[in-house]
Design goal:
With 257 residues, the protein is an alpha/beta fold. Helix content is 45%, strand content 15%. The chain has helices spanning 28-42, 75-82, 84-91, 108-114, 142-150, 152-161, 167-172, 185-197, 201-213, 219-233, 237-248; strands spanning 4-9, 12-17, 49-54, 97-101, 104-106, 118-122, 126-128, 165-166, 178-180. It is globular, with a radius of gyration of 19 Å.
Amino acid sequence: MAGVKQARDDAVGILTLDEPASLNAMTPDLLGALANGVAEMTADAEVRALILTGAGRGFCSGQNLKAAGALGEDLAAGVTRFYWPAFRALRECRVPVVVAVNGVAAGGGFSLAMAGDIILAARSANFIQVFSRIGLVPDLGSTWLLPRLIGRQRALELMLLNEPLTAERAQEIGLVRQVVEDAKLMAEALALARRLAQGPTRALVATRTLLEESEHTSYEAQFRREIELQATIRQSADAIEGRKAFVEKRKAKFTGR
């Protein structure tokens, strides 16, 4: 697939942005390939976790300005048509998504990293909003995602001052789970993805859904929503296996069903 490489490691699907010459800068073709890649890999019921990473020296350097014209004169319509499907595919993915950030994640690349569920960062990684440096506002979901991950004050600081965020600082403020040596990034991402792939997939993804819904509702409404979803999930094969394993004092063997 042009722009995105696909690979498998047992139950883990791996998607690699593969335009290293531009530090995997975003184009309609690249984001379209990513959306298709998520759909193709998760169409296989045996895939129970995904990893998203970038080839070469960077994760994603943001918008490829040379390709901006392909979005058309109506910028909002172009971005919604060409870019939103990839972001939606990650946010609504039927399996957990681990993002392995190598090198720079700038502008829209920063937004793309946040669209996954858990971020790991190579020690060389750095995150920068960059938008106000060129007289623009943050986009591609950044103003929704970043304050929910690190809080309003820190999000504004990054967006207004455009100071690069090192991998270590990103871990300190809760943006990334772990910082690892560059050579070990994919090994650690695979270890985490394999762990998630062994879990009760439906329950893990439903948990993500509940967290996102909680941002827009009251405590009482969310209290009820949790129980409603619980009533459905508890009928799944994994939930039945989980309760049985607990009673039998053994480790549960989840199948993702």
